[in-house]
């Protein structure tokens, strides 16, 4: 048993050593460029899928194995690790750092939730909408880490008032909010936000703490006895829920599950909308433009036009699915906007959200500047090459020199120069929850290099670079052509069937492997398959890129899942059950999009000239 335990603890080291050694006969017996490239590709893919070494470290494997096997020169490999998308990501991170530093994201989230109201169904929809919007511009992980503490504050308010209001939870309040709250002492909850290794965490301290029952409230035998007999909103709480759990009723637990899972799913949906929304979109854009340089069809505008309807449909269907799964089918009760039907607990929840918004104070000068930059960057991206009218790049004599990265880096650079203090005014207020002293420098910029460093995902940059290096090796060695020839038996399948199989395969693999690693491995294979079958490559590549983000069934599927799971409201069985439905919804909606509005947008009915040119060149 001791030997087995030692081997289990050293399993990653054993895997790192055994995989290259066991595959070494491949390039030794067949010393061709294709075999050597396949060896590097398999070793890197196994390292990525198993996570035996960090993803960024595994992405460096092509940097030394390609030169050793004579596939690519060292200088050629190095050039693949910094591309146009790297600069695009750096500019977006500058804007994200400013948004986060000045709490603009929190103001947007709280305002949208205030508009939605505190009814459970509308509360979930409100949080989903604000999460989708933020995730369009920030990373899915950052968005989840930002929104979850706000949601947790609302959930804790629901829980903290649960026992006291159980008897009257089903009563509606026709009086005004002030009348409802008169004579009732709301518990004092202090919310402290802080960072731990970049995820945003939250602590709730409940005062006073007197003989608590696990939720920070006074426990009384009378209240618990009444609770066990009282039916609340159609749900009879079990003995375990009322005494041993931190949730006053089963319905409260269901609300916590629904709201928590809705945030991680909304972050995934929002990341689909823009090229910069998630790293997998960037990987696709760069590999596609690198493989098909004459295509000129993928930019910020075309991607947004295609993906925005997908996100809207997925948002609504996912909300309905989660509501049905955790809150039941009574949408009229949980989604009513009438103030006369609000319970006391819903009134208190609205008060809590309103108090958090008041703490932010009036909108500050840095928030205004950040908002202006946010809008300006979006407009410049949309109007660069909109397609139906000439873009602003047509004003320049030389064409093809300016990309979305040009706009991103320019505006990101300006954030390091523009002072955070309004000219001839006092120092700006510090962000809420920040204990640091105010900067005495009147010319302190909107963001500092340290702010940028704290958010810049260098591991993703190296990971994306490793994917580019693998793709370049497959192209130069001829491995991609060889793979395409092996897939010729699939030529009898219709295009929609090929796309569906690719979506199902990718969405299954990504449940157990990281999204960027999965897409990096599959993109060259699907490109070669499309060229062999004479299908427009976009017909398979775009759906696969979107479906790779649907790893939502397990905590290890993606970082947002892990963040939500760490709050303790959901179990793995809840994530599997809800995630399977979201995964199915995502695949069906993406297939609907690629078969309908995607056809005229990308001209998917024809095998394009830029793909023919690439196919002919690769065959030579």
UniProtKB/TrEMBL annotation:
Q: Which domain of life is it from?
A: Eukaryota
Q: Which GO terms describe its molecular function?
A: solute:sodium symporter activity
> According to its UniProt record, what is one Pfam family this protein matches?
Na_sulph_symp
Q: Where are the transmembrane segments?
A: 45-69, 119-138, 259-284, 304-331, 357-381, 401-420, 460-484, 496-526, 578-604
Primary localization: membrane
Where in the cell?
A: Membrane
Look up keyword Glycosyltransferase and say if it applies. no
Q: How does it sit in the membrane?
A: Multi-pass membrane protein
Keyword entries, A-Z: Ion transport, Membrane, Sodium, Sodium transport, Transmembrane, Transmembrane helix, Transport
Q: Could you tell me which InterPro entries the record lists for this protein?
A: SLC13A/DASS
> Cellular component terms, GO, for this chain's entry?
plasma membrane
Name the family the entry cites. Answer: Belongs to the SLC13A/DASS transporter (TC 2.A.47) family. NADC subfamily.
Q: What is this protein called?
A: Solute carrier family 13 member 4
